[in-house]
């Protein structure tokens, strides 16, 4: 609850350069009297200007400044909320706006608009409209609740029920939704651009992959051809190896033949020696008649016999030599044949060696090609491009995640929008309080001796029925009857505010409600109603009917003109 303690003002309208100071929490009821132009209603403008930067009456800021002094307009408003003391100082020519909490000025780095919003939203928690509907009634320039447009009626009730926050939230939500739509559009635009970019990069990679695959196919084809060549060479080696084996099998007698030739030659040499010895021995007997050893003469017969034996032996040896010579020739011929076969084998083996060398070379070539194929297969086609694709795909994943989050956020916005619309949560709360409001309105109307059935609906349209069930609207009634309705609504709003502890305040100011609209009976009824107010209410009644009302109030403030300036009379 806001307890207004004091207001001070100078150079405001008809007030002069000296402060006018009014205590707002001293008496439960205060009557403010004075002639026209004496400055009775300046209190309203002082409070509204101090708190909201504009007067109660429809006057521009410059017109609020005293026309004689034309400068140094200053208003100070003192109030408490809980254990905290507040002071608002506002001025014009020069402009001034200061807010104090427990005598410490609130930082003024913010703009004037933000500073004012902080005061209204975080401290007062009461708009200008709420203040003028709950705390003030009366003036010709004041618009009573029943004369407000439907949306303004609703806004006032929302403030009273402390649900205007939902409207603020709805406004914030609308801005967020607009921002969200922009974010969704930008996100989708970024996704489209990135997808097109990735698609183009993929085409580049596909072209590079086709080039790589073409190289691999070419290498594989070369490998296949080379392998076929190797297989052919292996076949040739196999055939030639078989040929070598076959040829080697034909000269398996080489060693035997060579040994036989050697032995035959040795035998030939020995037979030749024997033949020569036989011939030599025969020649000896032919040429000598005595024994060389004993020197005895040789018998002719014996000599002939030896000669004949040696000749036969020589002939036998010669016959054997002829056979041996034949064998030798055969061995030599066979060896020649063997040598020819060996030469052929050596030639074949050289050919096999060349084939094997070619096979090894081809195998190395295949290994090289296989390595190149492996490198190509392991190589990411267009490595740099692929890296860019990965980076872009990561960005795309982030954008898609953002899209999902935006979609989820949009869903929540839709739900919130549904809840915050006028037909949502606010309507349900208002619906709960409409019966209470109607009950209170009719209670206060009865106390003011105005017996009608007054009802407002959830759209704050009124239905007024007489005791005879005739249906009326607000505009059908006289000024006095309208004033009774306005008063009933004022007290209803104060009761609702007290229930909700929303815009609840001790201050009640009624400007000239008795002077034209209420008759004597209405005045008495109102005073009865006024006396039912709690001790926490401080009511100020501005009136011309001083004589009739003076004894009905705890205290009286009388304003007067002195040297063209208004002041409180001593």
Folded structure, characterized:
- This protein has a 6-stranded antiparallel beta sheet with strand order 2-1-4-5-6-7.
- With 570 residues, it is α/β, with parallel strands linked by helices.
- Among the domains are: 1-126 and 505-570, Rossmann fold, CATH 3.40.50; 200-384, Helix Hairpins, CATH 1.10.287.620.
- The chain is built from 13 helices and 15 strands.
Alpha-beta classification = alpha/beta
What value does the average pLDDT take? 84
**Rounded Rg:** 67 Å
Examine the secondary-structure arrangement and name the CATH architecture of the domain at 1-126 and 505-570.
Answer: 3-Layer(aba) Sandwich
CATH structural fold name of the domain at 1-126 and 505-570? Rossmann fold
Quaternary state reads single chain
Supply the CATH superfamily name of the domain at 1-126 and 505-570: P-loop containing nucleotide triphosphate hydrolases
- The count of strands amounts to 15
Largest sheet: 6 strands, antiparallel
Strand order of the largest sheet: 2-1-4-5-6-7
Q: Based on CA inertia axes, which overall geometry fits? A: rod-shaped
The span between the termini is 32 Å
Q: What is the CATH level 1 assignment of the domain at 1-126 and 505-570?
A: Alpha Beta
Record keyword descriptors for this entry.
single chain, Rossmann fold, Helix Hairpins, six-stranded antiparallel sheet, six-stranded mixed sheet
What would you say about this model in short?
The protein is α/β, with parallel strands linked by helices and 570 residues long. It is 60% helix and 14% strand.
